[in-house]
Amino acid sequence: MTRQIPTRLAALAVVGVLLVSLPLLGLLARVPWTGFLGDVDDASQALQISAVVSVLATLAAVTLGVPLGWVLARGTFRGRTVLRAAVLLPIVLPPVVSGVALLASLGRSGPVGGLLDDLFGITLPFTTAGAVVAATFVAVPFVTLVAEAGFRGVNRELEDIAATLGAGPWRRFRRVAIPQTAPALAAGVVLGWARALGEFGATITFAGNLPGRTQTLPLAIFFELEQEPEAAFSLSLLLVLVSVAALAVARRSWVR
Amino acid sequence: MLTGAFTSRRDSFSLLVEIEASPEEIVAVVGPNGAGKSTLLRTLAGLHPIEAGHVRVDRETWEDAAAGVRLPAEHRSVGYVPQSGLLFPHLTALENVAFGVGGDEAAAQEALERLELGPYAAAMPESLSGGQTQLVAFARALVRQPVLLLLDEPMASVDVAHRSAIRRLIRRELRDRRGYRLLVTHDPVEAAALADRVVVMEGGRITQVGTLDDLRTHPRSRYAAELVGLNFFRGQAVGGVVTAEGGGTLISAAAPDGPVLVTVHPRAVSVYSSQPSGSPRNVWHCTIAAIEPSLDQVRIHLTGPIDLIAEVTPAGASPFVENQPVWVSVKASEVTTYEG
Fold first, then answer.
1. Which chain B residue lies closest to A181 (C-alpha atoms)?
2. Which of A34, A133, A145, B233 is most exposed, with minimal Cβ within 10 Å?
3. Which residues in chain A land under pLDDT 70?
4. pLDDT for the residue B77
5. CB A164 to CB B89 under 8 A?
6. Rounded CA separation A218/A224 (Å)
7. Is residue B80 within 8 Å of A164, Cβ to Cβ?
8. Distance between terminal CA atoms of chain A?
9. Do B90 and A167 touch (CB under 8 A)?
């Protein structure tokens, strides 16, 4: 067996590595190291909003995505393929389109948004809750995708054994299927959270850019870039570090 | 009484079974691979639906296709020990056993100790041997005191060195309790050691039910005969002469007239390189199809008017080679015939 990599492939791979790494190196070069902590401190409001929004969105994405993954993995009903496509669509949808769609349906003049307003006096657009909805919308498919794959890998015979030991469907799900899928689910949670944290297009379209209410870290970076580019570089570095950490955690639970 | 009379289907395989068991006996289900033995157990456990018929245990209907009754597995009082043990990999041995009794670890510990597994309570399944895994799975089923106990090939994943010790433990536990006890095996030694009654399954049908002694003396299919190590064929008897399905004839004084089943012990078959003199009865010309050595004897496969297997000592087999034409004789007194 020869282990040589064809030169052409090697050359293109090098270009690929450069394309991915050079911008990050460029960012490092521009970060004002002495002012880094100060910049982060100044953005504490956006940081807080980001933390709250991304964590709530992740919780919502897990609450909805895990059952969806189970239904897709185990359901035998017709139209499952269509359902899967619909649920996974936000992954490929341009975020701004997601935002417009959310606005059209959940906005005050939208069919669902109107109802929420009339019945409960709830308005989502341009509120923190709206930012959470936008982030959840884009994060759910990641959790669903990973959960479905995980549930497909569960040894069904173990669930059968659990049934003969008196465990009903819910107990089989909780005590047998979930522990077996835990590593995959952890990866799904991290991916979903990272996606929610980085969400920009849908958030700005649906929830706007209101400091202290809907301005998350990515939005703050974008607007700082015009006013105080140094601060934007600092905050970007912060998100790079968080992303690297997320990747490390996700990878570890995946590889196991 | 446990009664099951049902059909079920798995992909293209169909199962048609009538089975009865009393709480006083241990029943072994034997049969070749793919006979539907495991499907039978899974059906009784409620893991596989029936198409028609019913399953009743004591006065309870567990399943009745016509009435639309189907008790899910979790509501049946069953203990199911699958072939490979299948412990929950994320739970310790003790937690595995406690799973079915609401986490009652005292009961689980006691069940483990009965099977001499006390020291392994805290062990994770991946660190247990095949035999230990099987015993933990057995304890997990027993601790619930099920009405119906189902064991699928309990020795399949057990190391040869530990078989007899584990068989002894399983035997004691099975003997020490009342209730319906069914075990699937393809090993006649295991059936003999553990069961009172044997059900033979082939191709999704039950072909014989009886005591192990019935099976040993009167097998009713080629598989059952091979299981107990006998030559077997079907024939028609008239006045003590049996005409085999393949065309050969054989004299058997005791044969009842009509369709018969014939068994011949392989050690009652003698092989000669030239025509034997003396007793002229039941002598044929055959060809050696194969010579198959085993531990202390050699099995010679013969094709001719009646295909037979002869069992001889290694010394007795030394003059013969494959494809050699030979003479074969069977003493009439060694031929067992019974109604077919």
1. B90
2. A34
3. 1, 253-256
4. 95
5. no
6. 10
7. yes
8. 28
9. no
The boundaries of the domain holding residue A218 are: 37-255
B145-160 residue pLDDT tens: 999 999 999 888 888 8
Asked if the model's pLDDT at residue B288 lies above 80, the reply is yes
Closest by CA to B74, choosing from B14, B165, B146, is B146
Alpha-carbon distance B282 to B270, whole Å? 11
Among chain B residues, CA nearest to A179: B90
**Residue B18: pLDDT band by 50, 70, 90 thresholds?**
very high
CA torsion A187→A193→A198→A200, rounded to 10°?
130
Tell me if residue B307 falls in helix, strand or coil: coil
Cβ of A93 under 8 Å from any chain B Cβ? no
CATH classification at residue A142: 1.10.3720.10
Inter-chain CB proximity B72 and A163 less than 8 Å: yes
Determine, yes or no, domain membership for A150.
yes
Does B320 or A252 have the greater pLDDT score?
B320
Do A160 and B72 lie within an 8 Å CB cutoff? no
Range scoring the smallest mean pLDDT among B94-108, B143-157, B242-256:
B242-256
According to DSSP, the β-strands at B26-30 and B180-185 are parallel
CA distance B80 to chain A (A): 7
What confidence score (pLDDT) does residue B192 get? 86
State residue B280's pLDDT score.
60
Question: Residue A125 contacts by C-beta under 8 Å, 6 or more apart in sequence?
Answer: A103, A106, A107, A108, A113, A206, A207, A208
Chain B residue with minimum CA distance to A157: B86
Q: Is A208 among the domain residues?
A: yes
Residue-wise pLDDT tens digits, B162-210: 888 999 999 999 999 889 999 999 888 888 889 999 999 999 999 999 9
Q: Does A160 touch chain B (CB under 8 A)?
A: yes
Between strands B231-238 and B241-244, the pairing is antiparallel
Its pTM stands at 0.83
In a domain, A14, yes or no: no
| Whole-number pLDDT of residue A1 | 63
User: B35-55 pLDDT, tens per residue?
Assistant: 999 999 999 999 999 999 999
Structure token digits, residue B161? 């060195």
User: What residues in chain B have their Cβ under 8 A from chain A's Cβ atoms?
Assistant: 42, 45-47, 72-74, 76, 78-80, 82, 86, 88-90, 99-100, 140-141, 144
DSSP A140-197: HHHHHHHHHHHHHTS-HHHHHHHHHTT--HHHHIIIIIHHHHHHHHHHHHHHHHHHHH
Does residue A19 fall inside a structural domain? no
